[in-house]
Amino acid sequence: MTKPARAAKPAYRCTECGADSLRWVGRCPECQAWGSVAEVGASTRRAVAPSGVTRAARPIGELSPDEARARPTGVPELDRVLGGGLVPGSVVLLAGEPGVGKSTLLLDVAHRYAAGGSRALIVTGEESTAQVRLRAERIGAVDPNLFLAAENDLGALLTHLADVTPGLLVVDSVQTISTDAVDGAAGGVPQIRAVAAALIAVAKERGIATVLVGHVTKDGAIAGPRVLEHLVDVVLHFEGDRHSSLRLVRATKNRHGPADEVGCFEMREDGMAGLTDPSGLFLSDRSTAVPGTCVTIAVEGRRALATEIQALTNSVNYGVSPRRAVSNLDSARVAMLLAVLVRHARLPMSEVEVYVATVGGILANEPACDLGVALALASAVRDLPIPPTVCAIGEVSLSGDVRRVSGVERRLAEAARLGFSLALVPASQTATVSGIKTLPVATLIEALSQVANLHNRVGDPRRPVLRTIPGGR
Questions:
Q1: Are the C-beta atoms of 22 and 11 separated by less than 8 Å?
Q2: Per the omega criterion (within 30 degrees of 0), is the bond before 173 cis?
Q3: C-alpha span between 297 and 282 (Å, rounded)
Q4: How far apart are CA 454 and CA 400, in angstroms?
Q5: Are residues 272 and 393 located together in one domain of the fold?
Q6: Residues 144, 25: one domain?
Q7: β-bridge mates for residue 222, sequence order
Q8: Of 74, 204, 384, 461, which sees the most CB atoms within 10 A?
Q9: Do 262 and 338 sit in the same domain of this protein?
């Protein structure tokens, strides 16, 4: 008697990386993605037969590039990041923290697009149309060519597209839209993938510029499958602190323009205002210098921004561990600079509490800000101010050397435009910019001595302790 054939066990496969599993698991053991393992049938090989094409292939010289010309949105700072504006048929993914102002910015963009004579459609899955109408009235974004719809179903959204036939579509947000054709709750990996794929297909077919609003996780990454960022044409991150009015739009992927550009905005009661010259937000409004401050020139994308570093030191009681607090700076780099000041400059940084921050809430994490941070710390611990017309640019190594940085000409040009007369730069870089004098320094000790000499020239009545460093080179 022959044994009956054993039934094939169902297989499970990760939709992210394709790894197979004999049983269902909530997290893929290969790519560590959550909710991506789904049951599949027995795999069979089938030959793929040729099928009809939607459009015949043509020589590249016969194709017109006019269909891919960017159309300005009317918001110069956003156009700066997008590479000129929105391209018909392109799909933009804009992600950011809750409450940072994504909906307000896109409402303004849709209004300006509609005011140009083309229809714009906003589909919101998080708010009612009355709530969006109130925000539009507050920022002055009411136009007869701007349409609103509150939907959570993909089929209803596609119906609105067919009825309105807009040139711009804003979906706020993609995690709130779902379809019955795919199992799972809205916001899950299968739902986001299916909704995004359908919207991208419609956008390409009808030439609709589409902006998808995306949520972020607690780690700051875009929620949903990683393939979502690969499918869209542009990925933008909207950054900002809710306690500050500054907002930054940063491009991490752009098929139609630069992928390293940054746009600056200021959150106001009447909406988002673009900042063509944001350097003034990151400098203090004072006429005299105070100890513990130094200006450096940071680069965000292709834009040079003058950034003021503020440091404060305070003595502690015997037996108490000194506290270190860092805001808008890389705490690891600040700790490294403190060690360099103790080892090479013999400054008593290990005996005092240290607080370091930037003005205006801008992040200054790049190594080119090291010299400015170190000088601010030395100025604070010795209670001697740095002249207000001096800025510092350079990376500080563990050996105390000042290393070269990128874009030094761009940084010096911005410093000269803002009225700085002297810049401390790495000795290995020679750059000449009209309107500002450069002072090359090879080591941190040399930079401290040069700052002390500046105090002597201006007649500082206090003893220039920065010059006389025990054990200095």
A1: yes
A2: yes
A3: 10
A4: 21
A5: no
A6: no
A7: 216
A8: 384
A9: no
So what's the pLDDT on residue 85? 93
**Ranges of the chain whose pLDDT falls below 70:** 1-10, 41-47, 287, 455-473
In terms of domains, do 336 and 243 share one?
Answer: no
Element (H, E) at 411: helix 408-417
Is 310 within 8 Å of 360 (Cβ atoms)? Answer: no
Radius of gyration of the chain (CA): 28
- Whether residue 469 is contained in a domain is answered as no
Structure tokens, 111:
């209004």
Give 264-287 pLDDT, tens digit per residue. Answer: 998 888 888 998 888 777 888 776
On whether residue 202 sits in a domain, the answer given is yes
What tokens does 419 get?
């009225």
- The DSSP output letter for 120 is E
Three-class SS of residue 141?
coil
Among the candidates 247, 276, 305, a domain finishes at 276
Residues 177 and 264 in one domain: yes
Residue 311 buriedness (CB in 10 A; 0-12 / 13-18 / 19+): buried
Q: Note the pLDDT of residue 41.
A: 58
Q: How many domains does the chain have?
A: 3
Q: Which domain holds residue 305?
A: 281-457
pLDDT at 467: 36
CA-to-CA distance for 107 and 141, rounded, in angstroms? 7
Over residues 156-193, the pLDDT tens digits come to 999 999 999 999 999 998 999 999 988 878 888 888 98
Question: Could you give the CA distance from residue 403 to residue 157 in angstroms, rounded to a whole number?
Answer: 55
pLDDT value of residue 452: 86
The CATH number that applies at residue 114 is 3.40.50.300
For residues 284 and 306, give the distance between their C-alpha atoms in angstroms, rounded to a whole number.
11
What is the structure's pLDDT at 46?
61
Phi, then psi, of 264 in degrees rounded to 5: -110, 135
In this structure, the answer to whether residues 190 and 240 fall within a common structural domain is: yes
